[in-house]
């Protein structure tokens, strides 16, 4: 199976190398192979085998886009990731794609920039994979991409199958109670992510997404929420010097506001559980004339 996958990927990359004709052939081959394609801007992908993200590979991307795909499944130990087609005109601090791996420890692996067609060198332990695409103002020569992944499954990733992943567009007000079933407790060894994207997945300066947290119950600081903000200049970053960027049981309420992407990561340890938390979110302009 590994040899077949490697041969197929090599063949598909050779077809493409960023050309429009090659991209069409890649999509035709993926269709023939009945490979599931995810074509929208962002989402949660939980298939265990092979899937492709095909985002605007043969059209010009839009300015100031923000798309996040969270890829995970209960038995995945790591992922192989290949860019089959890459039409972006990468601009530092403006337009690009990054791949980020999450584990069951307390930090996020450094993001890996994806800058061309070919194999992406991910960390060997990558049970949760986050793909973040962002564009700047000038996208006149940039087309999209096709990403192809394969999960390696096993039993040693150390993350609870009860973990949940969310990608939430803040165009409309909403709320999440976690765990999802009211009155239940979360489990040990969870890694659950909550990614909040700008309204309609478009970055608009001074139009802010606001997320508010209220506590139902966490177990001391063994179970906690880490807050990560996104910027095209440095990717995902957590700053513990900022109040409320690490939420423990002693914090009953907190809120965050940003005109960029925001990610909350909930982790629980191997002992003691509790009733979790409640999140509300909205989007509004804070610009005053």
What key attributes describe this structure?
289 residues; mainly beta; Jelly Rolls; 2 domains; 5-stranded mixed beta sheet; disordered N terminus
Give an overview of the whole structure.
The structure is a single chain. The protein is mostly beta strands and 289 residues long. Helix content is 10%, strand content 44%. It has two domains: 2-153, Sandwich (Jelly Rolls); 165-285, Sandwich (Jelly Rolls). It starts with a helix and ends with a strand.
So what's the overall shape?
Answer: globular
Mean pLDDT across the residues is 85
Poorly predicted ranges: 1-5, 15-21
Amount of beta strand = 35-45%
The number of distinct structural domains comes to 2
CATH homologous superfamily placement of the largest domain: Spermadhesin, CUB domain
Specify Rg, calculated over alpha carbons: 19 Å
N-to-C series of helices and strands: HHEEEEEEEEEEEEEEEEEEEE
Largest sheet entry: 6 strands, mixed
Distance between the termini: 60 Å
Oligomer: single chain
In short:
Residues 41-152 form the CUB domain. The chain is mainly beta.
């Amino acid at each position: 199976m590994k040899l077949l996958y490697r041969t197929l990927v090599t063949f598909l990359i050779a077809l493409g190398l960023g050309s429009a004709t090659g991209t069409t052939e890649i999509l035709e081959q993926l269709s023939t192979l009945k490979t599931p394609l995810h074509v929208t801007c962002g989402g949660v992908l939980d298939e265990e085998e092979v899937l492709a993200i095909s985002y605007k590979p043969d059209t010009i991307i839009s300015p100031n886009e923000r798309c996040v795909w969270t890829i995970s499944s209960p038995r995945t130990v790591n992922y192989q990731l290949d860019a089959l087609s890459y039409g972006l005109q990468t601009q530092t601090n403006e337009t690009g794609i990054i791949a980020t791996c999450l584990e069951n420890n307390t930090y996020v692996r450094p993001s890996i920039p994806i800058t061309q067609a070919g194999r992406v060198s991910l960390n060997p332990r990558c049970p949760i994979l986050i793909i973040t695409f962002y564009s700047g103002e000038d996208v006149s020569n940039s087309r999209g991409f096709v990403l192809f992944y394969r999960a390696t499954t096993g039993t040693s990733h150390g993350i609870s199958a009860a973990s949940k992943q969310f990608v939430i567009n803040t165009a409309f007000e909403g709320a999440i109670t976690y765990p999802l079933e009211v009155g239940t407790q979360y489990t040990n060894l969870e890694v659950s992510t909550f990614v909040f994207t700008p309204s309609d997945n478009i970055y608009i300066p001074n139009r802010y997404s606001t997320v508010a947290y209220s506590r139902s119950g966490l177990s001391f600081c063994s179970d906690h929420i880490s807050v990560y903000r996104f910027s095209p200049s440095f990717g995902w970053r957590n700053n513990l010097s900022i109040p409320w960027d690490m939420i423990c049981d002693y914090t009953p309420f907190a809120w965050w506001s940003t005109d960029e992407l925001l990610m909350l990561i909930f982790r629980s340890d191997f002992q003691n559980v509790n009733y979790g938390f409640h999140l509300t979110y909205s989007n509004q302009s804070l610009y005053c004339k």
